[in-house]
Amino acid sequence: MKKYEEAEQDFKDEMSLADIAQKYDVSVGTVRSWKSRHWTSRVATKTQRVAKNVVVKKPIEKAIDELSDSELTDKQKTFVLEYLRISNATQAYINVYDCTYQTAKTNGSTLLTNTNIQHEIKRLRKAKLKELGVDAFDLMEDMVIEARADIGDYIDFGKYDMLHVDSEGDVKLDTDDKPEIFHKSWAQFKDKDKIDTKPIKSIKMGKDGPVVELHDRNKARDKLLELLKSDSSNTKIEITQFSEIKHDNN
Length: 250
Description:
Blueprint: H1 3-12, H2 17-23, H3 28-37, H4 42-51, H5 59-68, H6 74-86, H7 89-97, H8 101-112, H9 115-132, H10 136-147, E1 155-163, E2 181-189, E3 200-206, E4 209-214, H11 217-232, H12 239-249
Antiparallel strand pairs: 1-2, 3-4
């Protein structure tokens, strides 16, 4: 390694030009020449040194700090955070104000009409989506999947025929002396490793066997139609709209 290359590393380690000159037994002017002619990373190094002292906050942390500086009362700020956590205005109001259900039902809805509170909720929701790496297109894709869901993607089903026999194994005959035939149906889940489970809302055991419930595809289609109409009229669609739509689908 050449002297100026070794000296560049010393400079990155924050050694002064004078100390570098003394170390390599050259003049300070020579070191300056090395710096201007050969040290290509000198600006990046300075930036790296500064960056070490900068604490980069997550979007949601920054948004919460801004909420603390807002003109809302302390309880209103807490209500905003509770509402974002549980998406239930009545319960959020109870948790913050420690009141009866009837009072919370009225006052919780009233708080949501407050312009400043609406602004903070939208701003914090947008910050959280940004932190999660979720944008409008991700949520639209989810709606498209729900709108196109087909039960046949998850269950195989069909029918088969079988002869009707008595307890002794003899085939029973109908009035025309022809063998009686039963028509049987069958259904079977597909392997979960071979399907996309996003459109499935729930799977539970009913009295007649397993029950699969998909998300409401008609509701998802209606929402998509609304978005298509908005897009065709050049209306800007904010990411918070998609967040609210996804919440409604759940």
